[in-house]
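FORM 7B - TANDEM STRUCTURE REPORT

SECTION 1: FIRST PROTEIN
SEQUENCE AND C-ALPHA CELLS:
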Amino acid sequence: MGEQVNPFDEASSVADNPKTASIGSSVIPIVNRLQDIFAPLGGSFPKINLPQVAVIGSQSSGKSSVLEALVGRDFLPRGSDICTRRPLVLQLEHRPRRPNTDDDREWGEFLHLPEKRFYDFSAIRREIQAETEREAGTNKGVSDKQIRLKISSPNVLNITLVDLPGMTKVPVGDQPSDIEARIRTMIMSYIKHETCVILAVSPANSDLATSDALQMARAADPAGSRTIGVITKLDIMDRGTDARNFLLGRVIPLRLGYIGVVNRSQEDINQDWSIVEALNYEENFFHNHPVYHGLSDQCGIPQLANKLNKILEQHIRTVLPRLKAELNSQMVAVVKEIRTYGEDIESKAEQGAVLLNILTRFCKAFSHMLDGRSREMSTTELSGGARIHYIFESIFVKSLEEVDPCDGFTDKDIQTAIENATGPKDALFVPDEPFEVLIRRQIARLLDPSLQCLRFVYEELIKMSRACEATEMQRFPVLRRSVDEVMGKFLCDGVKPAERMIANIVEMEMDYINTSHPNFLSGSKAVELAMQHLKSTKKVLLQMGTNFGESRNYVEKSTMTERGLKSRAILAKSVANGYVLDQGSRPQLNNDKPPSSVDEFCARKKLVPPFTLGLWGWKEDDAVSRDVKRFLYQGRKCGDLLWVRVIPLAT
C-alpha cells in the first residue's frame, strides 16, 4: 500500500497561504472527493456532514432554471408537474482552460456510472430521468436516495449543490397521501445541519412573506446566518410592484442577503432559447429597470454564482477544523477496529488454521459459560449454567409445587369411581382400580411443567451460543451466521428427543404406582390419623361443653372395635349437662333403635330441659335435626359440630 495523505492537511496549508487567491479551487474539490468516498458506504459508516449547498423551494418555483443557469447548459428534466423526484447532488468542478488543446469540452459523470463521461447534456437529462424511474417509478413517485452528478467545465465555479424535490400540497400519481410531510422531512434532514448552506428559492409572482422555502429555512436556521434568499421570475411580477424591499432584507432579513434572477419561461424553452441568450436578456432587464438598476450587485445569475462560491469557501473555512477533528477521530476508530481483525490471510492452510482456531475458541467460550468460568461474567443477571440451575431449582420446582394433587375431582368423583369398580355387588374392601385411575390422571398433569422447563433451557442455550462470539468472528460475518445456524439446528434437533424422553418418564410413573414409597399414606396410616383426629375432636367438645357453664358432668364414649374405628359412630356426651348426638349413620345404642325425636332422646337419657345438645354431622333432612329446631334457642358451629341450647317451648 502507498503512503496515505490526509486531504485536510493539504487544505489547511492552502488556506493558510496568503498568496493563494482563493481556497475554493482546492478545498471544494477535496470536499467533493470526500462526498464521493462516503456516498457508497451508506449507513455502514458513521455519518459525517460535509459542507454543501441545499437548494429548496416549492414546486415550479424555478429551482431547475437557477441550477441550469449556474451550469450554463440544459441538462435537468422539465415539465409542468414535479420534475425533481430524487435528491440530485450536483458537483460543479472548474477546470482551467488549456490553450492549443481540445480539453475544453464540458462533460458530466454519474457516480453510479463511473468512468463513463457524458459530453451530450441531453443524454445527462435522459440518464437522470431513467435513474429516477428505476428508484421512484414512472408515476410521480418520490425517493430519498441520491443521484450524484459531477460536471466539469471551464465555465463554472467550484460549487456543490443539492437539488431537493419541490414542496407540494396535493399528491398526484403514485405519491402517498402524506407526500407533503415526507418531502418536508427529507428537506429538513439536509438543511438542519450547521455545515449546510441553504439556498431558499421563492418566485416573485407569489406572496414572498408566505414562502414555503423561507419558512423552512427559518425553522432550520432561526438566526439566518447560513441562508441565501433567491427571488426568481422578477420579470413577470404584477405591474406597479417590485421586490426591492425583499432584496434589501427589509421584510425577512437574512445575514447572507438576497439575489434576484430572471428565469426562462416555458415559451422561451420551447423556442430553444439558449442559456447565453437568457443571461443576456436578464442583464438587459436589470440594467434598464428603474428599480433594480441600482441593485446590480444583488441581481443576476453571475452574481449568484460568485456569492455562492465565496460563501461556500468561507463556510468550509469555518467548519474545516471541526470537520478535520471529526474525521481523524473516525479514522482512529476504524484503524483500531481493523487491527482487531488480524493480518491478511492468503493461503488455504492459513485460512484453515484460522477457522479451526476460531471454532475452538467458540467451543471453549460456550463450555466456560456453562461451567461458570467465563471471563466476561455478568454481575447484573444470571446467565449460562447458573441460569439453567435456577430454571431447574426454582422455576421448575415451583411449577411442580403449584400442581394440586386433589384438583380436578371431588369426593363425589371418588365415590363414583369406587362404586363403578365394585360392579354389580357390594365390596367388602375398597378396590385398587379407582385409586389408580384417579392418580394416573393427576400424574399426567406433571407433563406440561416439565415441557415448559425444557423450553426455558433451550432458549438459554440459544442465548449462550449467541453470546459466545469471539473477537475474530466479527471479521467473518458469514461464518458468524453459519455458526448460529448450525448451533440453532443442533439444539433444535435435541428438543424432540428430550420431549419424548420426558413423556416416557411420565408414562412410566403412570404405569406403576409405587405404594411402597415412604411418603405413601397406607390404610393403617389412614386409620391412625383418623383416631388422632377423633381424640382431638373429643378434646374440643369437652372444652366447648365446659364453656356453656352447666353443672352436671357426664360423658358417654363411643365404642371402638379392635379391627378399626367405626365409621360415623354416635357420640352422646354430657359435659356439664351437655350432650353430643351424631347425625350420621347411627348404630344402635344398647340394642335399641336410634331416637327419632328429641323427646325420645331426652326420655332415654332421663334429661329435663334446659340442657346443651351437640349435634355431629348436622343434616337438615334428619328427623332429630328437624325436631331440634323446636328447642333451638342459641348455638355455636365448630366444624361439623353444632352446639345448641335446648329449652322447652312456651305453651
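SECTION 2: SECOND PROTEIN
SEQUENCE AND C-ALPHA CELLS:
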Amino acid sequence: MPSEGRCWETLQALRSSDKGRLCYHRDWLLRGEDVLEECRSVPKLSSYSGWVVDHVLPHMQENQPSSETSESSRSTSDLEQPSCVPKSPVRTPAFSPVSSATPDGAEDKHESQHAEPMALQSSRGIKVEGCIRMYELVHRMRGREGLRQWQEEQERKVRALSEMASEQLKRFDERKELKHHKEFQDLREVMEKSSREALGHQEKLKAEHRHRAKILNLKLREAEQQRLKQVEQERLRKEEGQVRLRGLYGLQEEVLHLNQQLDASEQHKDVLKVDLSAFRTRGNQLCGLVSGIIRATSENGFPTAEDQAVAERALQEMRDLLTSLQQEIARACEDKRKQDLEAQVKRQDSHMQQGPEVHRETPAPSQGPGGKQNEDLQVKVQDSTMRWYHQLQDVSSQCVLAFEELTNSKDSQAKKVKMDLQKAATIPVSQISTIAGSKLKEIFDKIHNLLSGKPVQSGGRSVSVTLNPQGLDFVQYKLAEKFVKQGEEEVASHHEAAFPIAVVASGIWELHPRVGDLILAHLHRKCPYSVPFYPPFKEGMALEDYQRTLGYQVKDSKVEQQDNFLKRMSGMIRLYAAIIQLRWPYGGRQQIHPHGLNHGWRWLAQILNMEPLSDVTATLLFDFLEVCGNALMKQYQVQFWKMILLIKEDYFPRIEAITSSGQMGSFIRLKQFLEKCLQRKEIPVPKGFLTSSFWRS
C-alpha cells in the first residue's frame, strides 16, 4: 500500500539521519554498553513490533486527543478508513513467554479485553508507535531486570557488609578482650608484685616479731622465774609463819596452863595469910599480852620473829613468876610453921604459968572499901552466867530442829511458803528507821500480827504463819536473826539507828518472850562479849574455828580486819545497850521490862571482874556507856559513879598495861569520855535517843 511505502521510507530516512543513528535506550547506563556502538550500527526493527501493532496501537488510537496537529489529522483520517487488519505475522513464538511473564497483571487483563482484531487507521503510525512501545517495553523489562539484579547486588553487598561488620565487631571484641586480658595481666602482675612486696614486708615483720617475741619470752621467763622465786619465798615465809604460829599456840597453851597453876595457888591465900594478887594480876596480863599478839597476827597473816620473841619472853616471865610464887608460898609455909611452933611454945609456957588457956579471937580477913573483900580479876565467866548462856543456845537449837522439815523440804509449795514467811519477817525490820513514830508503829503492828497468826500483806500476797505447822518457829528464828543482823550492819554504820530498832525489838520481846530469847542467843553467838564470855582455846581446835568462836568472820581461810571486827561488835553492843533501856510506848506499863537495866548493870560488873582484852574491852565499854550510861546513872546514881571511879582508878591501868602503842585509840577515847563525864558529873543523853516528839510525828 502507498501508505506503508511512505512509512518505511520515513523510517529509512530517520535511520539515515543523525538522530536515527543514535542509540536510544533507557537503561543503557545500567548495562554499561558503549554509547556510540549503536550510533555506528544500522537501525533495525524489534521483533516485538507485530505485538505492539496488535495490542498497543488500538488502545492508544482511542485515547489520542483531538487537538493534534493538522498533519496528524490528515494521516489519521487516512488511517480511519475501514480495513480489517489481521494479527501481525511478525510476532514470533518466542514472544509468548514474554507476554506470559509480564509482571503487570493489570496489563495482561487489558490485553485480553482488546484481543479482538481492530482496524488500524495508518500503517505507518502503527509501526512507529509499535516500535516505540515495543522499545519502551523492552527497556522497561530490562530496567526491571536490572533493578532486580541491582537489588540482589545490593542485598549481596548488604550481606557482605553485614558479615564484614560482624567480623569487624568480632575483631573489635577480640581486640577489646585482648586489651582486657592485657590490663588484667598487668593488674595481676602489679598485684603479684605488691603481694611479693607485702610478703617481703610481712616476713620482715615476722622476723622482727620473732625477735621481739624471743626477747619477751626471755623477759617472761625471767619474770616467771622471779615469780616462782617469790612464790617459793612466800611459801617458805608461810611455812615459817605456820611454824611460828603453832609455836605461839604452844606458848599460849603453856602460858594458860601456868596461869591455871597460879589460880590454883589461891587456896594458900587464906591458909598462909599472904597476898598473892600481884602474881595473879601479872599472870593475867601476860596471858592478855600473848592473846593480843595472836589476834594481831590474825590480821597480818603470820607472826613475825619479833612476835615470837615477845611471846617467849612472856612465857619465860610466866615461868619465873610461877617459880617466884612457889618460892613465896614456900617461905610463907616456913614462916607459918615457925609461927605455929613459936605459938605452941608460948601457949605451953603460958599454960604452965597462968593455968587455964585464954582463947583469943582470930582477926578477920582484910577488906577493901565498902566492906567488900579484895579479889583478883578472873578470865572465866561465872557459872550462873554460863548456864544461862547454854540455856539460850539450847533454845535456839531446839527452834532450828522444830522447823528443820520446812527448811529441807523439796516441795515447791513448801519452798514458796518458806520464802514468803522469810520476806514477811525480815523486810519490815529492814524498813525500821528514824523518820517517824507513826511509820514505826505500822511496822511493829505488822510484825506483831504475823507472830500472832494473823494474815499480813507481803509482796502483794497474803501471808500467815498458819500456812505451815512449822511456820511460827521459822518466823521467830528469822525475825530474831534479822534484829541482830541489823545491829551488826545498820547500827555499826549508823549509831542513831540503834534506838528505833531496839524499841521495836523490846516491844516484840515483851509480847513474844521466845523471840527475845532467840535474839539473845543470836547476839551471844555472834558477839560472845555481850555475855560477857571469853571463849577459851581448846586443845585440838583449829585456828579458824577458834577465831569464829571469838566473833571473827573467816572466809576462804582469811580472817576479817580488826577494824571491821570491832565495828561489828560495837554495833551489836550498842543495840543491846539500847534494848535494855527502852520499852514500847504503846504497850502496857504494868509489866516490867523483859530484859531491863539490871541486866546492863550485871554485864558491866562482870566485864569489870574479868581481865581486859586489848582493843576489845575499851571499845565495848565506850559503846555501852555512851548508849546506856545516862540510863544507868539515873537508875543506880551513887553506885554507878563508884563504878566509874573504879574503872578510872583500877581498870584503866590494867587496860593500858596490855594495850600496844598501835591500839591506844579506843583506850584514849574511853578515858577522855569518862574524864569528861566525871568533870561534868553527868553522862550525856546519847545521840538519836527517841523522845516524845518522835512519837508525835
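SECTION 3: OBSERVATIONS ON SECOND PROTEIN
Residues 65-121, 351-376 have pLDDT under 50 and may be disordered.
The first strand starts at residue 456 and ends at 458.

SECTION 4: SIGNATURE
Preparer initials: ____
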